[in-house]
Known about the structure:
Elements: E1 2-7, H1 10-19, E2 23-26, H2 39-48, E3 53-56, H3 69-83, E4 90-92, H4 103-112, E5 118-120, H5 130-140, E6 144-147, H6 158-168, E7 173-176, H7 185-192, E8 196-199, E9 202-206, E10 224-229, H8 231-242
Parallel strand pairs: 1-2, 1-8, 2-3, 4-5, 5-6, 6-7, 7-8
Antiparallel strand pairs: 9-10
Helix pairs in contact: 1-2, 1-8, 3-4, 5-6
Amino acid sequence: MRVEISVESIKGVRIADRAGADRIELCSALSEGGLTPSHALVEMAAIRALGAEVHPLIRPRPGDFQYSKDELAVMNRDIHAVDGLGATGMVVGALGPDGLLDMDACEQLIDSAEYKPVTLHRAIDVSASPRRVLEQAMTLGFKRVLTSGGQRSALDGASLIKALVAQAAGEIEIMACGGVRASNALAVVEATGVTDLHAAVRAPVQGVPGDAVSYVGVGVPEGFDHFETDADGVAALISVIRG
């Protein structure tokens, strides 16, 4: 079993690496579903991660996965930039107007990664046909696909994830995500047959009482300031998998 932890800070990188994560998906703005991290964050993450691979998410904005030429140009430049900063792989994806992969765009993104492993992110979960998208991903040469089975949680989408694992037949890795925690990780594995799990294990950080102006993070509970990677939660998850 391989475990990938999604983080958005150097503290998160340290936590995931020390706990024994195999990969780190490095993002900014996880409350927005994850956006491209800064180049400095990628560079420092590559330095601080002693054992885990660092795979930056390349996503220029929140919202759908249909991108303009300018947005794709930014994404390709970001891939070239982080490639030279120590990134081990990339996490990308783009959909076309038909709801399937934008083959030309994805081919450009994979080419920009220059033979480093590329993960197709959860664009598959909002696609017109996850099974057809998986076939496209295999044709393009993606290393793995990240999916919750088109549902909010991996357990809710377990039947589709299991079907994708069977369809992949070992040619591409299927990585389950969506609410994966120590309490349900083994159930997810049993229900889906995956050998890769992905989790963004976060906890709210206590805030300092403020004035009328607030910059509290999206979705943060009352009295807290922002989210940070949960060291205990990550350690518990990896312990369950390794145990």
